Amino acid sequence: MQFGLHIADFTFDSGPAELGPTLARHVKHAEDAGIQRITVMDHFWQLPGIGPVEHEMLEAYATLGFLAAHTQKAMLHVLVTGVIYRHPALLAKQVSTLNVLSGGRVGLGIGAGWNEQECVGLGFPFSPVAQRFHELEETIQICRQMWSESEEPYDGAIWQLGRTLNSPQNVTKPMLMIGGGGEKKTLKLVAQYADACNLSALAGVPTGKLDVLRAHCDDVGRDYDTVEKTAMIGVNPESTVDGVADQVRALGEAGFTTTYVFSVGIRQPEKVVDLIAGVAAQV
User: Fold this and answer.
1) What is the pLDDT of residues 158-207, one digit of tens each?
2) How far is CA 167 from CA 75, 107, 138, 191, 245, in A?
3) Structural domain boundaries in the chain
4) CATH fourth-level superfamily of 2-282
């Protein structure tokens, strides 16, 4: 089992003015502890359930650049990019830029987006769900084309690109992860396009979602085993190494190979890393 440190809460005891140094120490500690992946959310306000919306939230791709400069080994990506926030060509360029500057360690996690409150507050268009899924598929297609040798135009129903030039090209092929467990659309797109899925395990092991994904893979002629299965779990000040290890073992038995861990209410970031390291030592 690999582990990802998913940084979803930036409200640390050190305070907002020390976020930069605290975050740099946090990710160095994570790498030193053997954590293989580090991710951030793509939101502009804090999410209810993690903290008040007024709590600190950093923009994802600026933060990913900072993390790339303060790490050496970990895979980095956003978990997951909201397709509604950026033009697809800009997103493809952002990921490939970070991939180059990090020595090939940056991939793309992406989803259809959902936070209407945030969009209304900050003036982002928030399309109906069917439109967002059309945008998601075209964005994936544009990214894949821009990360290929092709410079041909892209003529979609939503976006038209006259020349898909992307230079410099990625150092490594960016991992493409689609987040979410929607059974009709999201998991079908995983089967069609993605290297990895990410499913919530907050309510238990999502074995039913894996069954749906397998069926979609069969429908499109995809080898189910070529899709990396990753899960998201949360920890809090009451979480124990033994308890989290039991969760992770259950995920491994179901076929998940990477567990991303986010924290709620732990204001000392070193405690999150130490908890994950303790779990990794058990499983």
Assistant:
1) 999 999 999 999 999 999 999 999 999 999 999 999 999 999 999 999 99
2) 22, 17, 21, 29, 43
3) 2-282
4) Luciferase-like domain (3.20.20.30)
